[in-house]
Amino acid sequence: MNSFILLSLFATIIAGKSPRLKFVVHEPSRFHFSKPENYISMYHQEGSDTIYVGGRAMIYVLTFTDRDVRDYQIPVASDQTAIDTCKAKAAPLELECDNFITVIQKVNDTFIVCGTNAGSPRCWMLVNDTVMTDVQGAGQIASASDISPPYPSQKSITLPADGSLYSAMSSVGGSAGSIRRTFGPQKLLKTENVWLLNPQFAGAAIIPSAEKFKEEIYFFFSEFNKSARVDEEPYRARIGRICTVDEGGIRALLADSWTTFMKARVMCGAGNTQQQYNNMKQAVVLTAQDKRAGVLYGLFSNAWGRTVVCAYSIEDIDQAFSTSKLKGYSSPFMGSRPGMCVRKNPATAEGQNNIKNLGVIRYHPEIEDVIRPVGVAPLDLPTDDQITHTVADIVMAVNDEHYSVLYLGTEQGKVLKVLHTSEEVFIISQYSLFHNEGPVLNMAIDSQKGHLYVGTAMEVQRLPLADCRRYGDTCRECILSRDPYCGWDKARRKCITIPPGYNVTSGALIQNLDHSNSSVCGEAAALKLRRTSPREVVVPFNTSIFLPCPVRSFHATYRWEKDNCFKNYPCLFSGDFCVLGPVVDTPLKEGVFRCMATEDGFKVEVISFRLVNDGRPLAASLASTLGLSLLLAVATLWLH
């Protein structure tokens, strides 16, 4: 006998922006830190099962398998002198007087590791998983303080490109902040102090080009806005751009500085309204190989701390840098446009004109055009949890087109998997990953092997990008997932991962990503006729009963029906259950009650109950002690 008492139920459900599916992940491929790591850096090489995680005076070398994680730990302690000096001059936080590993990057064959070293940054070279004291190899290296910040709370960005390392250091205290080339065979360059106003860096990305000398690097940051209103975040978001072929200016002008640096303002908000998000927290770029087409995803916050994501066309940004007027400059250019990626050759007339343009870039690096998001407004995402970190992947679908998939880590340690098409945002699923709830601090994505690595202060977890087995065993469930990694195999009748090199002309996989439309499956008639076997519940006399229906798809509409009765009964939602309880005009006495879910125009029976009245009262003690949360917990166990 299974009896449930409805004592109270007050809950609402929000559809639309919600993830369609929610998963709790219990996979064993996770690593637990022995003590919390409040700041972590990550390095992962595509195609490898090993990820390097930088923590407090430690590098964790983690090798993942489907069953477990092998770990090797490399201690990297601070100099005692640096620790003593740090404590004497009062760091922002005393706990920051340690060696936090902020940079782990591989540049050609050189594995560079840098840390805060208790306020006196140091760099090492990692050889055979052993930290060496000196960075050796071809080329030159900048001061460690230009690569790693002195404290982990100061944001910094590093990016390897074409055999060199590029570093962006946020402003803190009296430091101006800078964008530099800090390691490699090319000349080490920097930004002029007047070009950046207290920058806080959010990311960097290589913008490829079929012509190698036209390759660029974009840097994403926020600058201090002296004219901000009281209710406005005191920042303005920017994109900075340099050319990788840049070798600096002449002895008299920009000798050790970029000659191609330009910057543009970035807007994120609803059109020209006051609802703007001006503080760029993070940025990721997706581009096709050797093509300038692509998309930038920026994570922004406003004065109240709310986070949103805006998407931008790389082609639009490139067009603005190529054609916009320069702020405060109206005279004609000498020769080619200032700041363009050109090979340096002072002997030619063109080279002489480029030298004359150095003064223009020196005093007018900002363009007039403002970069605005695709679709004008931020992406339509859930607002009940703050986004802390994001990575993205570009996926070739069955229709031979590319689709963007975003992975958004949240303040509560969850990960949202989001499909972004030209028409809309679709939230595929939400993953609850961690035993200890806490913000996602860092993520790394491996498109080649199909893995996502997610780190919090307590754990590092690995997830498959193609999680097709979770969607169900029917064509309809597979198609409605709208996951670009997955398709329905008609021959094997399974939801499978799209294999590498899939041929759309000869293949037999079904997929539909642009709209929630499962009619391609041709299963409509069978779905409407499906019935579950009713579970019998014996109802004691004069007892309040509720019937739990597990919610699978949060984009479906749930209703209860009673056999031989044309009336529908609405759900009361509590957590992941659609509950039928004793409300007015709902006779929960005897009969068969069926929970029906309607999605994409099809109605499916989820579960059914047959109520049988035995005429005996339920013990008063049980009725007075069982609460709703306990009853739902019992229901969860019972239904599984």
From TrEMBL:
Residues 20-465 form the Sema domain. It is found in: Membrane. Keywords: Developmental protein, Differentiation, Disulfide bond, Glycoprotein, Membrane, Neurogenesis, Signal, Transmembrane, Transmembrane helix. Gene3D superfamilies: Immunoglobulins (2.60.40.10), ligand-binding face of the semaphorins, domain 2 (3.30.1680.10), YVTN repeat-like/Quinoprotein amine dehydrogenase (2.130.10.10). PROSITE patterns: SEMA. The chain crosses the membrane at residues 618-639. GO terms for molecular function: chemorepellent activity; semaphorin receptor binding. GO terms for biological process: axon guidance; neural crest cell migration; positive regulation of cell migration; semaphorin-plexin signaling pathway. Residues 1-16 form the signal peptide. GO terms for cellular component: plasma membrane. Its main location: membrane. Belongs to the semaphorin family. This is Semaphorin-1A. It comes from Stegastes partitus.
